[in-house]
Amino acid sequence: MKVSLEEVTKVFDGGVTALDALSLEIQDGEFFALLGPSGCGKTTLLRTIAGLETASSGTLRIGDRDVTRVPPGARDVAMVFQDYALFPHMTVADNIAYPLRIKKVGRAERRAKAAATGEGLSLGGLMERRPAQLSGGQQQRVALARAMAAQPTVFLLDEPLSNLDARLRLEARTFLKKLQHDLGVTTVFVTHDQAEALALADRIAVMESGRIRQLGTPREVFQRPANVFVAGFIGSTPMNLLAGECVPGDGETATSWGHQIDVAGVRLPVPEDIVTELTPGDKVIVGIRPEYLTESEDGIKGTVEIVENLGTTSLVTLTTTGPSVQLTVPEGREPEPGATLHVTPAPGRLLVYRADDGELIDAP
Ligand code: ATP
């Protein structure tokens, strides 16, 4: 089912505005991530869809039905909480089968569905245990299985994988994606882990202070962050964000196109598609991911300060006359600390933001 929010605002007692006139449409069958820093309103948005919070104003629809004031039990949604909320006196099998019992599914079918879902989450050998006899990670998988077994029309997950250890987390992630794909149930999940959002979601809403700062596919959000907030938030290594100014071109290169961007005394070409959007004197912030900075003859000059091993690449921090700049280099190509490097953005990889409002300058 589709989930739509129209100008939904949630003000808590005490005056905190957790959701600020937020509008959003989540498509039927979509795997949708709510991502953002602590306190941005992700959980409140999820709980509002679940019916555990009521919007102060605005309209929430599931399918075509207005559920803004409908209680949680009548919404046909299933939510997995961060703290599991399992029934302590029931076995794992009975916990997983519980929502099916509520739906009056027959005993044999209940057991078969619970067993299949439990198996998928590696709970096969634990079906007769009680929650207190499980680790935190196992309890969380039971909570996931319980919500999945019920096959709701909307599936809501609050940081579903946060208590799993790193390896299990990857396994559960793959399983979750496959299951969601197979079931085709609209799924909204909250995470503050951007790698998880990028890996799982069809689309991501990046939130800040009760608003959506960007809505897009993982690729869009990663490749073209819509503003400096998203640019600074997304990426396993933070994007370089450097102050610059549009200046008249020196005419020395074919790419000067009448004007260039001066960053710490180095002239960078204005991306071709936004040439008409910039005028000399405009203050900008250029964004370059560390992965897209390469060593060059000229370009931004810096001294190697720190080299951090990331596995197949290393992250090199350069001190410059301005802010420090980071780039990744392939394994075995690390420069020595103290060395002087010149770096330049790979063609087509420079993003330009307006300094005044931090918004991406896009092609007209
Ligand atoms: P986190 O990642 O830390 O869980 P979040 O993005 O999920 O954060 P929310 O829990 O939705 O954020 O909180 C959004 C804002 O609303 C925060 O400022 C929080 O302090 C406030 N808030 C949340 N619940 C309540 C409540 N019951 N009463 C008052 N304020 C609340």
From TrEMBL:
Any one of the GO CC terms: ATP-binding cassette (ABC) transporter complex, substrate-binding subunit-containing
Domain of life, per lineage: Bacteria
SUPFAM superfamilies hit by this protein: MOP-like, P-loop containing nucleoside triphosphate hydrolases
GO molecular function: ABC-type transporter activity; ATP binding; ATP hydrolysis activity
PROSITE patterns: ABC_TRANSPORTER_1, ABC_TRANSPORTER_2
Domain ABC transporter stretches: 3-234
Pfam families: ABC_tran, OB_MalK
Keywords: ATP-binding, Cell membrane, Membrane, Nucleotide-binding, Translocase, Transport
Protein name: Sugar ABC transporter ATP-binding protein
Organism from which the protein derives: Actinoallomurus iriomotensis
Source taxonomy: Bacteria, Bacillati, Actinomycetota, Actinomycetes, Streptosporangiales
